[in-house]
Amino acid sequence: MQDNPSTPQDPENAVAGPRSGIPGTQSEPAPSTRDTAPGSAGGITSDVVQDETVTPSLEEMLKAAELKAAEHHDAWLRAKAETENVRRRAQEDIGKAGKFAVEKFSGEMLAVKDSLEAALASDNQSAEHLKEGVELTLRQLIAAFDKSGLAEINPLGEKFDPHKHQAISQIEAPDAATEANTVLSVLQKGYALHERVIRPALVVVSRAKA
């Protein structure tokens, strides 16, 4: 019987070939980066990198909060300054209104004063001319009162009103037709400025007959 000649083997192929043919050895797969545990070198996934870039750090959040607080403080200072300016202008307007409230009425009084001075400047006046001058001056005064909203209170024959009248005395009614608390005479007229009584009328009222 003849022996089969052995096939010659290339030394390089023999070395580079798998070791699985050698008893007691196993082939080891090449390490893969896919199986690397998270957190190890070279194993950081794209998701983790994306989370770190989106989430701001505590220092950045603190700076943003400080900027926001500074903006709010600045807005508060501006609003406070504007409020102070409005209050100051309002006080100035009130002061001017009180100071010059009688400006229009004062202008009307100048004509009355001029008429009185003209009457006194004339030496040779008759009683009739003097009366006419006084009546003219009185009409000027009444016109000035009307323009200023100053109304006369003359309650003769009216029912006594304690809000507009001041009773000086009370006498018995002259006849049965006169009711009690009726104004019988006016000693001094009253005046109201825009329906606000600035001086009540001094009156005498009636009382019921005994």
Quick structural overview:
This protein is α+β, with helices and mostly antiparallel strands. Helices cover 46% and strands 16% of the residues.
Overall description:
The protein is an alpha+beta fold. The protein has a domain at 149-210: Head domain of nucleotide exchange factor GrpE (Nucleotide Exchange Factor Grpe, Chain A, domain 2). The chain has five helices and six strands, in the order αααααββββββ. It has helices spanning 11-16, 46-54, 58-99, 103-121, 127-147, and strands spanning 150-153, 165-172, 183-188, 190-193, 196-199, 201-207. The strands form two sheets. The chain has a three-stranded antiparallel sheet. Strand 4 and strand 5 (196-199) form a beta hairpin. Helix 4 (103-121) packs antiparallel against helix 5 (127-147). The longest helix is centred in the middle third of the chain and has 42 residues, at 58-99. The termini are far apart. Residues 1-27 and 32-44 have low confidence and may be disordered.
Task: Name a few traits of the molecule.
210 residues; alpha+beta; Nucleotide Exchange Factor Grpe, Chain A, domain 2; 16% strand; elongated
Name the assembly state: single chain
Total E-strand runs: 6
CATH architecture of the domain at 149-210: Roll
Fourth-tier CATH superfamily name of the domain at 149-210: Head domain of nucleotide exchange factor GrpE
The biggest beta sheet reads: 3 strands, antiparallel
Mean pLDDT, all residues: 80
Helix content percent band: 40-55%
Strand fraction equals 15-25%
Helix tally equals 5
Return residue spans where pLDDT drops below 50 for at least 5 consecutive residues. Answer: 1-27, 32-44
Shape summary: elongated
